[in-house]
Amino acid sequence: MSNIEDFRADRERKVARLKELGINPYPAKATITHAVQEVVDNFQTLLTLEEDVTIGGRILAFREHGAIAFVDIMDGTGKLQAFCSKESLGEQKFSLLLEVLSTGDFIEVTGPAYLTKRGTQAILVKEWRVLSKAMQNIPTEHFGIKDEEERYRKRYLDFLLDSETRDLFVKKALFWDTIRDFLKRHGFLEVETPFFETTTGGAEAKPFITHHNDFDMDVYLRICVGELWQKRLMAAGFPKTFEIGKAFRNEGSSPEHLQEFTNCEFYSAYADYRDGMKLVRELYIEIAEKVFGTTKFDMRGHSFDLASQWVEIDYVTEIENRTGINVITAGEAEMRTKLDELSVEYEGENRERLTDTLWKYCRKQIAGPAFLVNHPKLVAPLAKLRADGETVEMFQPIIAGSEVGRGYSELNDPIDQRQRFETQKQLLEAGDEEAMMPDWDFVEMLEYGMPPTCGFGFGERLFSFLAGKPIRETQLFPLMKPKEAKEVPRPVDSFVKE
């Protein structure tokens, strides 16, 4: 018999022993009076009062020394030692504790605050009760889970054993709270827009397709957070809206990109991209200060301070200065030749993809903070044209060589929008799976009139970026390929009171 089988058999024997004594190893209710951290924070007061408290949590460590035992309990708010002795519990309760408890179990203990001989804060246990018996062994806090794939598959253990990882998600919640609070303070209304769409507008990406049984039609999971829907709300008379929600893109993975992610998009009527740039700078500084406690960062060989002046970088000029290619006037053959010279791989050979690839090559050199502006209209089919007729009123925050957001003065000319959708349709028909799907209903809405509007979108990639983590690491449960099917261990019979 393997060690794992021996271990499981031992746990099953302990469950059977509890049942034999009429004790439910999985009761429905706990009788906890204090969170662990509450006891820790008020320990001196509780020590003086000498009153009993009841805490509960998971056993992280269990150490027996003759007539005493030390049990480390963690409940998610903090960790505290439970000091168990034959003297405080009585011989029967103490012996049973040693017989049936194991590391990983959830228990509750009752007793007063107590200082051990070594000065360790603890609870002097007078009563204890099983809350949930663990049938699997958990790794020790010291060693944790070293295999990365195993960490992602068993995130519950990763969080349990790694306080830094747990704290990362507390910080991520603060990230979204900060954004929501900022936008509401600035008069934005939070809205919800559809996840299922008949056409995926608002971005250029390959969508996921699913089937709507009731309507008997295929639909797409949205690739952005309601851009074309929120602009309909601008036309409907809502002055400012925002949404925080999921988007889905059926594309490749990288340290900065996943197929499922959370984004925020906001729209402000009677504003342009200059207004948006001012608001975004203010928002990003507030995020840095409240979530990370600093505006200064060092990453990827770049140092930047979000509170410093944000320079403006002209899209066309920057590419020309770094590569010698003017993406407005150069031919596609010339652009391909330059990319080959630079040893830059590119997918797709149409002008839009080549232009975007040249820019991505150049952006790696920019520390920021900066705003990239004056994009060619080809790469921004929803942005308003500038006076030159070739570039648009668009902006992207750039830090440490990456784009961390996108916004523009929204195109509200229905004739121009129809023409640009026609161009995107041609790209789709030519095999470009990431070209934007035309939304003719949206064009019809524009014909009724939409006010001048600034829109902006960004998301959890900004959080992962500032946290210095791959985006996969900053998702609670990233998607994993299933392991090969294996036999599930036989469950212990459910408790039945004798």
Describe the protein in words.
- This protein is an alpha+beta fold.
- It has two domains: 3-132, Nucleic acid-binding proteins (OB fold (Dihydrolipoamide Acetyltransferase, E2P), Beta Barrel), CATH 2.40.50.140; 161-310 and 368-474, BirA Bifunctional Protein, domain 2.
- Helices cover 35% and strands 23% of the residues.
- The chain is built from 16 helices and 21 strands.
- The protein has helices spanning 3-20, 36-41, 43-49, 86-89, 91-100, 148-153, 155-161, 163-185, 227-235, 273-292, 315-323, 332-341, 351-363, 414-429, 440-448, 460-467; strands at 53-65, 68-74, 79-85, 106-111, 113-115, 121-124, 127-132, 189-190, 196-197, 209-212, 217-221, 240-248, 260-269, 296-299, 302-305, 311-314, 370-373, 394-399, 402-403, 406-409, 453-459.
- Strands 8, 12, 13, 16, 17, 18, 19, 20 and 21 form a nine-stranded mixed sheet that branches. Strands 5-6-3-2-1-4-7 form a seven-stranded mixed sheet. A three-stranded antiparallel sheet has the order 9-11-10, with no helix packed on it.
- A hairpin with a 2-residue loop joins strand 1 and strand 2.
- The longest helix is centred in the middle third of the chain and has 23 residues, at 163-185.
- The chain is elongated and about 90 Å long.
- The relative contact order is 0.10.
